[in-house]
Specification:
This protein has 233 residues and is α+β, with helices and mostly antiparallel strands. Strands 1-3-2 form a three-stranded antiparallel beta sheet. α3 crosses α4 (45-57). The longest helix has 13 residues, at 45-57. The chain contains ten helices and eleven strands. β8 (173-176) and β9 form a beta hairpin. It is globular, with a radius of gyration of 18 Å. The chain is 49% helix and 16% strand.
């Protein structure tokens, strides 16, 4: 097989709306069961299982067993990056007329969500802008933490960015936000920030999806640590 054939095969995995929907659901960074994904996609469990087999075989998902249950999740952060990049290159669709639930869900995702393991949407972009404005993040030289940014991050999340990192994941990288059409902070630093926001309940998940909202404590944290006020209505 040629590289072109391999690329076409990868594209074919995402060319099905159900498989694409499953992958987008898994962008919340969590593990889901086949039955949960079937309900999310609105298909029969057997149909979801068949699609999951293809996605696992194609390397986009991995399967993990826990007791009698089997869970699937995105294979690694690079798959999440691929999905977010592809989504950012599509034209956003307005919610269907008369679908209040769809409009509400779409607005929630735009305000804030997890992009695999880092913050995205308006919250993620606002944090990135504030870090840049305060000299913690340098985006002109490619996404890099400044010395002040490294110290700030170490103090906030209790993790030293200078310590050795497992694997090849970059410390910071820009991730093109598919709703805001601007970059938010990804990489290991973005993941540590998101973990801190969730652990401290500065953001909480909305329902079972990947949308998140700021809590009152989160508004206070953004004000105290980054000097910004975020409208989370």
């Amino acid at each position: 097989m040629t590289f072109a054939a391999d690329l076409a095969g990868l594209a074919a995995l995402l060319a099905d709306e159900t498989r694409a929907g499953i992958c987008l659901a898994l962008l919340d960074g969590r593990s889901w069961t086949a039955s949960e994904l079937a309900a999310h996609a609105g298909v029969a469990p057997s149909t979801a299982t068949a699609h999951l087999h293809r996605l696992v075989a194609g390397g986009l998902l991995v399967e993990r067993r826990q007791g009698r249950h089997r869970y699937v999740q995105l294979a690694d952060p690079s798959v999440a990056q691929l999905l977010e990049d592809l989504a950012a290159r599509t034209e956003p669709r307005p919610a269907r007329t008369g679908s209040l639930r769809a409009a509400t869900a779409s607005a929630a995702l735009r305000r804030g969500r997890t992009c695999y393991d880092h913050l995205a949407g308006q919250i993620g972009v606002a944090v990135t802008d504030a870090m840049t404005g305060q000299g913690l993040l340098d985006i002109d030289a490619g996404f890099t933490l400044t010395p002040a940014g490294r110290a700030w991050l170490a103090d906030l999340v209790g993790w030293d960015p200078a310590q050795p990192r497992p694997g090849r994941r970059p410390l910071v990288r820009g991730c093109l936000d598919w709703t805001e059409r601007r970059e938010h902070l990804g990489g290991l630093a973005g993941a540590k920030l998101c973990e801190t926001f969730l652990d401290n309940r500065w953001v909480v998940r909305i329902g079972s999806g990947r949308a998140v909202r700021l809590t009152p404590a989160g508004h206070a944290a953004l004000r105290d640590h980054l000097g910004i006020t975020f409208d989370n209505r």
